[in-house]
Amino acid sequence: MIYQTLNPALGLLEKIYEFSSDKTVESVLSTLGSEFKKWREIAPEERARRVGDLAADLLAKQEELAAMMAREMGKPVGQGRSEIEKSAWLIKYYSEQGAGFLAEESIASEHSKSYVKFEPLGVILCIMPWNFPFWQALRFCIPVLVAGNAVLLKHAPSVPECTVTLIDLFIKHGLPARHLFIDEKQVAAIMTDRRIAGVSFTGSVRTGKILAARAGLHMKKSVFELGGSDPYLVLEDADVSSAARICAESRLINSGQSCVAAKRFIVHRSLRRDFEDAFCEAINVPFGDPMENPALGPLARDDLRMRLQDMIQESKSKGARVLLGGTLPDTRGFFYPASVLTDITTEMPVWEDETFGPVAALAYFDGEEEAIELANNSEFGLGAAVFSKDAVRAESIARKLEAGFCAVNDMVRSDPRFPFGGIKDSGIGRELGSYGIKEFVNVKTIKVR
Predict the structure, then answer these.
(1) Any catalytic annotation for residue 225?
(2) pTM value surpassing 0.85
(3) Nearby residues of 393 by Cβ (< 8 Å), 6 or more positions away
(4) Which listed residue (72, 225, 276, 402) is catalytic?
(5) CATH number for position 435
(6) Is 292 one of the catalytic residues?
(7) Which residues in the chain come in under a pLDDT of 70?
(8) Is residue 429 part of a domain?
(9) Is residue 147 part of a domain?
């Protein structure tokens, strides 16, 4: 693990950052502990107002931050601008709604007074991924701060400039948030510290399970979002053109590097030829320099595209057929072409594992129950979608899908207004909405006779 800016479009190392020393770790924990004690005493309305002041600064730096993401993890600058706009929306949403979500709730009882109040827990450690370096960190930090907690950010090693820039903004506005550049051993030690009241992690299933075990051992409140292999069901009466376009758009979000992107496409057999043609046409976009805002940028690291290639090769050996892409390009940088595989079966890697890149897996069904069974045949349960001209039928199917977030005739997107998270290996707990802000609070009952 090295904290570094490694330009994925060029494959060039630009800067290496030093790890935080144990002395720095102790200083940061001590500072956050002191700041939390003061922050928790501020009324939720005032905390929300102060957090809300971040939005203007974020938008003022929109171009700078979009270029920073392109340079550190390869996001096309147009998508980077959108990420900053969405992050500002998140901030404004909680600045307006957060205090209301934390309002005391009266409960009818035989007592003269009985109610529930929501109190902050303390310093919350958040371990965040590189693929949405501002949005994912902010979707954790903002509700947690409005709830009265302090934040310790351990961001991905590949986005250190984004990390420093974000935390500098927090400090500028007097918010109790700091970052550390630490390794796995230091993370493990911090999780045992009594000053850490909880942990939130977004990342791989393997690492998530290790951290969940540590959190449980030390009784830390935790939220885990561990990725997905989202199924998109295309029923026999779907608008093929619209469904193919939306499915392709979802699969290509962030160059395919999104936990909640569509990954498995389960299509009625009668639509096979039409959907394959329409989908391949929609997803067949060129890749290019993220600073030039292509539809498809590079993957963040070389090992990610090599893993994609290995998954495709193994799936081909088990009978998958490549309709589009599927080969490493002879070009500089960590690029991988949009790829479509068909004749997928459930024992293939592109079905069983999370394809973190622009690779789509197509399977086919004859009956509704078969489609539901295929969709639910996964260790993941983050998002899912159903396409049909009969919205009532599609909604009925969506209710049977094992996922935390389902859409009908649309793609799944995280949204400040809705709780976000999954089941099974996709994780535990929720972010966003009124549910997310209450994950790291003490739900405290008080009754008065």
Answers:
(1) yes
(2) yes
(3) 235
(4) 225
(5) 3.40.605.10
(6) no
(7) none
(8) yes
(9) yes
